[in-house]
Amino acid sequence: GENVEQHPSTLSVQEGDSAVIKCTYSDSASNYFPWYKQELGKRPQLIIDIRSNVGEKKDQRIAVTLNKTAKHFSLHITETQPEDSAVYFCAASPTLTFGKGTMLLVSP
Amino acid sequence: SAVISQKPSRDICQRGTSLTIQCQVDSQVTMMFWYRQQPGQSLTLIATANQGSEATYESGFVIDKFPISRPNLTFSTLTVSNMSPEDSSIYLCSAWTDMNTEAFFGQGTRLTVV
Fold it and tell me: How close does chain A come to B93, measured CA to CA in Å?
């Protein structure tokens, strides 16, 4: 089955800095790569996703890049804000297999 | 989009008993998944609930322990059988309206086995 590795496990940044979270996957048949944000005690919420026919996608302060050859994809958050603090998960299809998560802490 | 109602939201159960968790989606969905999430950990896929056929289980999960039903395109249940304290966790259902689009999650069931 699919195996998704995610790094780092914890990321601390100052408000206004950028944050980058990286994931690798094993199944070359995977073609859908979403990123979820989970706040404490809440369900995961999709923040951005990318499909295998696209190399990059951006939505305001959030961007995702995909390198299918290398089987890795990354989440980029610019101008971080304290409300960005949460756990972020990457995942890969065809069944949604999740990475282990990154706890992002944004200090004011 | 899809709204998923999952219940119960929490339960405390005696070891050796079983608990059935229900997920109801407000629209027809192609795929439904069941996950387990330990506090502070990632989501571990238990199985894919297939409509009209047996669920597809991931490595380490078996049907006798986690029987799953999916009688139609909007509803699924997960049963945690013969529970032990190690089964204490949050269980989440998820649904895809179409493949490779946003997957929506239920609010989770916090299970404590004593």
Answer: 10
Is residue B101 over pLDDT 90?
no
What is the rounded (10 degree) CA torsion for B93, B95, B101, B105? -40
Of the two residues B30 and A60, the one the predictor is more confident about is A60
Question: If pLDDT is split at 50, 70 and 90, which confidence band does B50 have?
Answer: confident
B87 three-class SS: helix
Residue B41: is it exposed, middle or buried by C-beta count within 10 angstroms (0-12/13-18/19+)? middle
What angle (nearest 5°) sits at the alpha carbon of residue B109, between those of residues B106 and B113? 165
- Are B33 and A95 a contacting pair, CB within 8 Å? yes
- The partner residue sitting opposite B105, judged by closest CB among A44, A95, A100, is A44
Helices and strands of chain B, counted as H and E runs? 0, 11
User: Nearest-CA neighbor of B105 among A53, A77, A36?
Assistant: A36
A34 touches chain B (CB under 8 A): yes
Residue pair B76/B89 in contact (Cβ under 8 Å)? The answer is no
Contacts of B56 in chain A (CB under 8 A): 95
Non-local CB neighbours of B82 within 8 Å, separated by 6+ positions:
B16, B17, B18, B65
Q: Which of residues 76-95 of A touch B (CB under 8 A)?
A: 89, 93-95
